[in-house]
C-alpha cells in the first residue's frame, strides 16, 4: 500500500493522488471491536465534491466521509475506486476503510464561503455514511449540523440502521432545511442477504429504521435496488419485499436491475461462481463483455412485473429508467430545489442566493448501486 514506508513531511512521488506527503495520514487503527478491519484516519483538504456535468445524477454536490465500506456488498459500484489507493476492489474494499476525520471542519469552512449558494448536498451515493465505522467516529452528526447551520438542504441514502441514532438531530434539522431520507434494501431473504451483502443490517432492521423515520415525520423512500436476476426478481420475492416496505410506512419505492461496472464485475462473478454456479451462464448472457447494465428487454420485463405489485401495495413507485438523465429521483437531493424554492418559512433570513460556485475539487461521477 502506497502509504507505508513514508517519512513525515517528505514528498513521495509514488504516493496515492493527493497524499504525496505523509501529513495527510494521521494513523492506521485496528481494534478488537472491528476484527479484521483497519481504519486509515486521514486529513482531507476538501469536503464538498462537485459532481461532473456528464453525470446522470440529479444533484451537483456530495460529501463522502469514508472510502471503502464494511457493508461488503458484492455488487457495490464503488469497489473500483479502492484501486486508486493501491488496494484491491475485493476484500480490501470491505476491510481497509479510509476515514476523513476532519471532514466536518473542512465542510464548515467551505460552507462559509461567500460563493456557496446552499445547493442541495447528497450523502450516501458513494460508500455508505452509516456503515459500521460511523459507530466509532460519529462523523455524520457533525456533517448534518454543519449543513443545517449553513442553511444547506441535504439528503441521505443508506443501508445502515445506525441512521436511527441521528433521527432526533435530523428531525430538528428538518425544521430549518429540507432533509430527505432514503433506505436501500435490496435483499429480503436473510440467507441470501448474508451471502451477497454480509456486512449490512438485516432487511428487518432496515425496515424498522424506515418505520422509525416515518414516525419521526419523514417521508422515506426505499430503494429496492439492485434487483438480482434469477435471485430476487420472482413475483413471490418482489411481492414479499413490497408488502414489507409498505407495512414499514415507506412513502415511495425506486427500483432497478443490477448494474455491474467494470471494477465490480470480476468480484461479483467470483461470488456467483462460488455461491450460484448454475447462474453464471445466464449472467454472462445478461452482462456480456464490458456491458454494465441489464438489457433493455430485461428491464422492461422487470418493470411490467413490479408495477402491478406497487399498485397492489398502494406504493408510489418509480423505475430508475423513468427518470431521464439528470432529472430528479425521489429520495435524493435535487438541484432544482434550492433554498429559495423551498418552504418559505424554513430558510427565513439567510439572505440572497449568489450564482457563483465555490472552488472545490471535482469528484468521480457517483452512482447508486
Question: Would you give an account of this structure?
Answer:
Pfam families: Radical_SAM. It comes from Microbacterium lushaniae. InterPro entries: Elp3/MiaA/NifB-like_rSAM (IPR006638), MJ0683-like (IPR040086), rSAM (IPR007197), rSAM_sf (IPR058240). Keywords: Iron, Iron-sulfur, Metal-binding. This protein is an alpha/beta fold and 369 residues long. It has 11 helices and 12 strands. The strands form 2 sheets. An 8-stranded mixed β-sheet has the order 3-4-7-8-9-10-11-12, with helices on one face. A 4-stranded mixed β-sheet has the order 1-2-6-5. Strand 1 and strand 2 form a beta hairpin. The longest helix has 17 residues. The chain starts with 24 loop residues before the first strand and ends in a 50-residue tail after the last strand. The N terminus and C terminus are likely disordered.
| Strand-pairing-aware structural class | alpha/beta
Average pLDDT taken over every residue = 84
**Poorly predicted regions:** 1-23, 340-369
CATH second-level architecture = Alpha-Beta Horseshoe
CA(first)-CA(last) distance:
26 Å
Count of spatially separate domains = 1
Content of β-strand: 5-15%
SSE series: EEEEEHEHEHHEHEHHEHEHHHE
Shape: globular
CATH third-tier fold name = pyruvate-formate lyase- activating enzyme
Report Rg: 20 Å
- The count of helical stretches stands at 11
Strand order, largest beta sheet: 3-4-7-8-9-10-11-12
β-strand number? 12
* Oligomeric state of the chains present here: single chain
| Estimated helix fraction | 25-40%
What is the top-level CATH class?
Answer: Alpha Beta
Biggest sheet: strands, sense, closure? 8 strands, mixed
GO molecular function: catalytic activity; iron-sulfur cluster binding; metal ion binding
Protein name: Radical SAM protein
Domain Radical SAM core: 55-299
InterPro entries: Elp3/MiaA/NifB-like_rSAM, MJ0683-like, rSAM, rSAM_sf
